[in-house]
């Protein structure tokens, strides 16, 4: 067991994949008498801390809900500020990701992002593609309904092209046509800020995921809070439809 500030984490029972809905930046900024973008800027510091904590623990995959397809409907100045923040954060932290052996990938409608954002992210993706430690997955311009719609289109086209027989479609067929193909489903989903909903995030993938909700706003979410979520996960029994004596 690894003891971290009175929190016991079993390194042999870590979730392979953790997903996080990083919520509460706007409310945090309001509490501090500032504009929403100020909250997003401080949220980047939390991202850096949690990525480092996950890498140090030995988590293999960390997916962060960074920008949803619905977020395009926010005020234009906030959207523009978030896009600029993506560029600055990716450029500023690229060397740190390389140094810490972190591989960056994205899921979502990448082509809907401004060209400058795509170029900046693609540069980091290319520079970190051979890293073998934590895989950091940014869900950008992403929503599950978008992803599932794209998956249905892809499979339908393969049926039209004669590559797939509709009667042969399985769960694996669906998984192979999702944005997360090749990535294991998350065992733990964390949502900050006291909201108790999924908000269109990884709906197919979280069928058996453990959910952890905290009232802490994202800019205040520390690595100690992250450790608590991991400890809470390890306290649960994952049955997958079975009873205790079958486990």
Task: Detail the topology: elements first, then pairings.
Layout lengths: L1 E3 L2 E3 L7 E5 L3 H7 L4 H22 L3 E8 L7 H24 L3 E5 L7 H14 L6 E8 L1 H17 L10 H6 L11 E4 L18 E4 L9 H12 L13
Parallel strand pairs: 3-4, 3-7, 4-6, 5-6, 7-8
Antiparallel strand pairs: 1-2
What's a concise summary of this model?
With 247 residues, this protein is α/β, with parallel strands linked by helices. Helices cover 41% and strands 16% of the residues. It has a single domain (2-142, 184-236), classed as 3-Layer(aba) Sandwich (Undecaprenyl pyrophosphate synthetase).
Biggest pleated sheet: 6 strands, parallel
Low-confidence stretches: none
Q: Summarize model confidence as the mean pLDDT.
A: 94
Q: Rg to the nearest angstrom?
A: 19 Å
CATH level 4 superfamily:
Decaprenyl diphosphate synthase-like
CATH topology: Undecaprenyl pyrophosphate synthetase
Order of helices and strands: EEEHHEHEHEHHEEH
Task: Give your account of this protein's structure.
This protein is an alpha/beta fold. The protein has one domain: Undecaprenyl pyrophosphate synthetase, CATH 3.40.1180. It is 41% helix and 16% strand. It contains seven helices and eight strands; from the N terminus they run βββααβαβαβααββα. Strands 5-6-4-3-7-8 form a six-stranded parallel β-sheet, with helices on both faces. Strand 5 (103-107), helix 4 and strand 6 form a beta-alpha-beta unit. The longest helix is centred in the middle third of the chain and has 24 residues, at 76-99. The chain is globular and about 55 Å long. It starts with a strand and ends in a 13-residue tail after the last helix.
């Amino acid at each position: 067991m690894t003891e971290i500030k009175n929190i016991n984490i079993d390194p042999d029972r870590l979730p392979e994949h953790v997903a996080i809905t990083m919520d509460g930046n706007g409310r945090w900024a309001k509490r501090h008498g500032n504009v929403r973008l100020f909250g997003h800027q401080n949220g980047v510091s939390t991202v850096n801390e949690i990525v480092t904590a996950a890498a140090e623990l030995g988590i293999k995959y960390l997916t962060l809900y960074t920008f949803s397809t619905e977020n395009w409907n926010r005020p234009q100045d906030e959207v523009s500020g978030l896009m600029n923040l993506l560029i600055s954060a990716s450029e500023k932290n690229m060397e740190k990701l390389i140094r810490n052996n972190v591989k960056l990938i994205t899921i979502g409608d990448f082509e809907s992002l401004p060209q400058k954002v795509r170029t900046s992210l693609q540069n980091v993706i290319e520079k970190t593609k051979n890293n073998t430690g934590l895989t950091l997955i940014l869900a950008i311009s992403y929503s599950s309904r978008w992803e599932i719609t794209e998956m249905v289109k892809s499979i339908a086209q393969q049926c039209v092209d004669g590559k797939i027989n509709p009667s042969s479609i399985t769960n694996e067929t669906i998984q192979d046509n999702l944005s997360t193909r090749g990535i294991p489903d998350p065992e733990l989903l964390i949502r900050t800020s006291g909201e108790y909903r999924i908000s269109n995030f990884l709906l197919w993938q979280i069928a058996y995921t453990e959910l952890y909700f905290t009232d802490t706003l994202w800019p205040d979410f520390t690595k100690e809070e992250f450790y608590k979520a991991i400890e809470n996960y390890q306290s649960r029994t994952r049955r997958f439809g079975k009873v205790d004596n079958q486990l």
